[in-house]
Amino acid sequence: MTEKNEKTQAKIEQVKGKGKETVGRAVGNESMTAEGRAEGAKGDVREAKEKVKDAFKR
Predict the structure, then answer these.
(1) How far apart are CA 19 and CA 57, in angstroms?
(2) Rounded CA gap, 1 and 56, in Å?
(3) Which letter does DSSP use for residue 58 in this model?
(4) Are 13 and 45 in contact (CB under 8 A)?
(5) CA dist., res. 37 & res. 54, Å (int)
(6) 17, burial (CB in 10 Å: exposed 0-12, middle 13-18, buried 19+)
(7) Where residue 2 falls among pLDDT bands split at 50, 70, 90?
(8) DSSP-derived secondary structure letter, 28
(9) 35-44 long-range CB contacts below 8 Å, 24 or more apart?
(10) Residues 6+ apart with CB under 8 A from 41
(11) Residues of 24-48 as b/e, b for ≥16 C-beta within 10 angstroms?
């Protein structure tokens, strides 16, 4: 993936994760809440990786 695609994918994962987490809490589905947290964390890690790559480009 290109750098821009990686950053976009990170944001998508973060938003989807937050949505799943919120819906899971609203309906009392702990499994969905956990899945949302995991997906959001995956997006956070991807974003952090891209920030590190950007820092070394300078």
Answers:
(1) 33
(2) 18
(3) -
(4) no
(5) 26
(6) buried
(7) confident
(8) T
(9) 39/13, 40/13, 40/14, 40/16, 41/17, 42/13, 42/17, 43/9, 43/10, 43/11, 43/12, 43/13, 43/14, 43/15, 43/16, 43/17, 44/10, 44/14
(10) 17
(11) beeeeeeebbebbeebbebbeebbe
- The DSSP output letter for 51 is H
Percent of the chain with pLDDT over 70: 98
Q: Which two tokens stand for residue 17?
A: 């994760």
* Residue 29 main-chain phi, psi, to 5 deg: -100, 95
Read off the pTM. Answer: 0.84
